[in-house]
Amino acid sequence: MKHYFRPFALIVSTKTRTVIFASLLLSFAPFILLFGKISSHLKPKISNSLLCDESTAPINKFNSHCTMDICFDSARCTSFKVYVYPDDPDAPRASANYRKILTAIRESPFYTPNPEEACLFVPSLDTLDRDPRSPRFIHNLQSRLNNLPFWSIQPRYAKQAKDNSTQKPHPGQNHLLFVLFPGSWPSYDVDDLRMDVGSAMLARASASRVRMRLGFDISFPLVTTNYPEWDQSPRFRPTQNGYIRLSLLTSFKGKRYVVGIGSETRNALFHIHNGKDIIMATTCKHMHNWNLYADARCATDNAYYETVSYENLLHNSTFCLVPRGRRLGSYRFLEVLEAGCIPVLLANDWELPFSEVIDWSQAAILADERTLSRLPELLRNFPDSRIVRMREQVRFIWDSYFRSIEAIVQVTLMSIRDRLTLRQKNYGVWNRRPGGVVFSETVTINDCEYPSPNLPPKCQDEINKGFTLIVTIRPPFCKDYLVRLKTLASVFTQSDDLKKAILVWQCSDTLPSSEKLSMRVFGSLPVSVSFAPLPPDMAPLDFVPPSPSNRFRPSHKDIPTIAIWSVELDVIKELELHQINAAYALWRQHPHRLIGFHERLHVWDNKSATWNYSVDTSAYGRFSMVLLNAAVYHRYYHTLYWRLTTAKLRETIDTLATGEDILFNCVVGYASRSAPLLLSTGGERPSSSSNQPTELLSAHVSPGLCQPLWSASGCWSCERSGGQSHWHNECNQRPFPSTLYQQSSVC
After folding, report:
1. How far apart are CA 701 and CA 689, in angstroms?
2. Domains in the chain: how many in total?
3. What does the record list as coiled-coil region(s) (predicted)?
4. Are 592 and 722 in a shared domain?
5. How far is CA 547 from the centre of its chain?
6. What is the domain-level CATH number for residue 293?
7. In the chain, pLDDT over 90 holds for what percent of residues?
8. Which of the residues 28, 282, 550, 553 could staple to 256 if both were Cys, CB 3.0 to 4.6 A apart?
């Protein structure tokens, strides 16, 4: 028989062990009770009903290995359409932010009410807040998702119509869920969603770079409940002064949490505060029982916090600090971008919003939370030239991708669509003006096909290929158009750069023959006639004046050159060959700009709170528009005109039979962020051939048409700095209204 040595503790009888354990438990009882009292103060008070509610129990199941190849059925996406489930009358009312998101999707060009043609599915159930302590948390969300008709099995699309095989369930496949607030006290785990998302794609705020499914999920910005919509003015307008370095080096105003996750960085900010050019204003007041955790600095910090204006800090800081909060993301991030301040991020591991398409290294400083003490020296040594470039990039990124809920949703959908198309936008297109949202995938496959001030050298050959002449023919020149056209053509055909002529026909008379015009007027150059055909239910005698917007109908396939020379028949006596060539030469230097000869100005009237249209620009010493009766511009602006203007705006143009010049100027200004360039004809300035009664435009066109684009910093003006030169007027350009932004450069 083998004998084993057994320690004394193992050979004590069961009864004896019970007595010993009870004695030890009683001896430690005071310490256990004391710890219980302390820990009860360190935890937020949560009702027993909440803790025991099965609907709030963590589920958190999702495929961490999801990619577009594994978890997404791209075969459904021959046409990128998004289906939003109808509102569930039995579900809790969605939050204001989620209603805005759903509205933006339904009003986007990607929306479809037909689930059979959908590529992407979005539940109407509010998934934004997944913190069970929040009043906006939806209980039993998992069962509600499971009950969605297409959550597990999507409807058959056209290619599957004849396939009678049984579909396998794939919960969440091709679904998009928006999540702003993952996790809860005390860990705020980014993956704690309290629902099984299956194979669904997540547009999530506060995304972790390490734990995010890169290339599948979308890093979404954290937006406030009062986030601006498309037609609303910005909350924090960028500063106007032209200084590179502002009075403050950096600043921050916000809460510090004293204890718990996210408190370390904000609690350490006082170390870099100097009260001069570095302002760190924090408060301990957070939740109702904040005073239980107050430290020795709280009283001083709270008092100082009340003396500092957050908006003044934003507008007077060269750099704005964005430390992490409980979660990685912070409301400060978008507020800083909106104010035009360069963000300095203290949130290690944060995957920044839309980082898949936005190069944040051009617009933000990614600092390290662990080396906070070195930050002031880093910022003081930052080159001025880089500050200028980054500040400009901040404004571009905000205006293009974050200016409204609609813009944010648009970027979300377009970045997903880009993954599914062979014609993905070049990364550089997203990161230089005018950005990736305003361009269609059919054009931006070629870097040279969009108007940018930074086109690569290879595009110079395309730019130098000449121009296409577009002549708009409309009343009052319908009867004598041929005589006027011959006079105009006699000058333009002398230019070696003219490659084709297009006539935009807006008269009730018989349509001219393009072949005869080519032979008799344009010396055998290619000529085409553009016109809007009558609706099928309209008799030929029921003439309705064509829309003034039809002048932008000629598209990319009709125009063989990048440059367009636009004219009307009122300028036949003032344009000479050297002016035609000079305008084209100037455009080749600035292919993103609008070049013109006849200036106009829109002026804000404080008394009536409306925009007024002024023909006399000399009284104000600046101009903000040029007429299209003699102008040169990039052909892609025709496409942008139809993409950036709404049907309602164009209907107003049709009703007034004028004003498309104004709208087109705003489209170009919005996309290029630049004022037009003005050349001198040296003679008397004519009015446009279109009917432009100043009072009518002042009362209707200016305020009604361009307000959305002006609100987004779309129109710019030029202040005259001297007399007109022979070639073009030199001026310091600035956005109009001038409260939006200032750029010191020469037009």
Report:
1. 17
2. 4
3. none
4. yes
5. 30
6. 3.40.50.2000
7. 47
8. 282
